[in-house]
Amino acid sequence: MGHVFLFLVGFGLAVTGGVTVIAYLNFLPAGISWADYFLFISGRIECYFLPIGILLMAVVLFRYPN
Questions:
Q1: N or C: which end of the chain has fewer CB within 10 A?
Q2: Mapping DSSP to helix (H, G, I), strand (E, B) and coil, where does residue 51 land?
């Protein structure tokens, strides 16, 4: 049961981070370069939820007993 909970937490974090990163892509048509975009999202804490969630899901899947 704990594995399922941790997987769902990781999934929720990944979805939150992914939606945020995609939402910030709307800055590109406003004239911001890709370098400025990556500098901007590297300073936003909610954008780190995507890799943390993917990592958490990967760890849970790796440790899940067969």
A1: C
A2: helix
